Amino acid sequence: MEAAVVALWRACGLVRPANDPHKDIRRKQRVNPEWFLVGELDDRVIATVMLPTKGHAAGFNYLAVEPALQRRGLGQAMLARAEELMRGVKCAKINLQVVTSNAAAIAFYESIGFAQDKVLSFGKRLEVD
Ligand SMILES: CC(C)(COP(=O)(O)OP(=O)(O)OC[C@H]1O[C@@H](n2cnc3c(N)ncnc32)[C@H](O)[C@@H]1OP(=O)(O)O)[C@@H](O)C(=O)NCCC(=O)NCCS
Questions:
Q1: Which of 5, 27, 81, 84 is the most exposed place for a label (fewest CB within 10 A)?
Q2: Which atom of ligand 1 is nearest to the CA of 96?
Q3: Residue 128 falls within a domain, yes or no?
């Protein structure tokens, strides 16, 4: 399962040199692992989204849909389930980051009701992969 998940992420261009995807899966397994959603079709991993630690405002990572199955509503369905889980714990807002060159993802988020916040995004690595 883990190998199939990472293969999907690679096919979707989500694996970056600074992030070891296997370590990210381990990190998720330590804290609310049930918030790592994996969609399967005929025993194949076709979609994922990794939700954060429960909190009042939260983002998500590794939203991916198998390239051959994109534009069929699967991404929207994964985020609908994510939203339901977050509402269930009274999470008030979803924050997420998209690399500015990812035009498809930007169009996707805009089409399902996300709007750009007027903020600068900062990050600080606490672990180096
Ligand atoms: C972003 C992603 C998850 C969207 O998943 P998807 O299953 O293709 O999306 P949906 O079919 O639910 O799309 C819903 C709507 O979003 C918009 N949309 C989705 N992909 C789009 C694209 N490539 N270009 C323009 N609009 C797009 C459309 O309005 C679409 O509705 P429509 O197909 O009826 O026109 C998918 O493209 C993906 O896995 N991309 C690679 C990984 C990635 O970039 N993840 C996000 C990182 S922040």
A1: 84
A2: 48
A3: no
Q: How far apart are CA 72 and CA 69, in angstroms?
A: 6
Which ligand 1 atom is at minimum distance from the Cα of 105? 1
Tell me, yes or no, whether 126 lies in a domain.
no
Q: What is the rounded distance in angstroms from the CA atom of residue 110 to the CA atom of residue 101?
A: 15
Q: Is residue 88 part of a domain?
A: yes
CA distance 19 to 125: 10
Q: Number of folded domains in the chain?
A: 1
Summarised one tens digit per residue, pLDDT across range 112-124 is 999 999 999 898 9
CA of residue 21 to ligand 1 center, whole Å: 22
**What residue owns the CA closest to ligand 1's atom 22?**
104
- Look at the block and give the residue holding tokens 């190998």: 3
- pLDDT exceeds 90 at position 5: yes
